[in-house]
Give the backbone structure.
Amino acid sequence: MTEQMTEQAAPAEAAVQTDAPKWAPEAEQEARALGWKAPDEWKGEIPAGYIDDPTRYLERAESFAPFRKIREKLSEVEKSSQEALRKIENASARMIERERERHTQELSRIKAEKVAAVETGDVQAFKALDAQEDAIRKQLATPEPAKQDSAVPDSHRVAIENWAVERPWFKKDAVKTQAAATFYGEAQAEGISDPGAILKFVDRRMSETFADLAPKQRDSAVESGLTLGSGAKPGAFETLPKEAKDSFRKYVERGVVEDTKEARAQWAEDYNA
């Protein structure tokens, strides 16, 4: 009886093994993004040279020069973004360390003056110094900005849908769509939360990455930032990337540093160190 059951089960197991996928789901998903279709999805006659294996389809696609060049360009963009983030983190760490040292010195001064106020019985001076100390300690305890939620809020989804209407390549060109998604995440990592501002960031990065999306060139004098009738040159801060300047302004908004000419110059120096 047991042998008969084993013989009956064997064909079913063989059928399951025969029907098992011959490729990874990830390979099929990526191939579909580049235009691959399964044999049963074709309408009409299957074209000559059709590749039924998505893994081999990807290998063939990656051998094409245009595809290879786009991949190399995206790799360069990713490296550039990582370097910009590294510079911003470096500048942030240096600025915060300087501010902590300054606050430590201020706390030491306040402590000494409070002792003097106690010795002389100056209650008003002691209260004023106490208020200064509380303000400094609050600055030292300023929390870091909250991380972005991985889920896409409805406000962002609506903004993306409206934005995509005027960008026919979105969700049709797999490489450009992936690049746009990468830049969207990059903007959020920089602390940009408004969907409109994020999409402007995406548009700028896309125009820098893909020549066919770049805006038409204006007059060379205007593009180079020249101002007629003025010999003034932009300072180091003004030449920084937008994301670097935005990061500095966030610290200003949080009260970590004052927006002065000296502070901007120091931020630019730390960024370019």
Observations:
- The two ends are 80 Å apart (CA to CA).
- Residues 154-224+232-265 form one domain.
- Residues 89 and 271 are 8 Å apart (CA to CA).
- The mean pLDDT is 74.
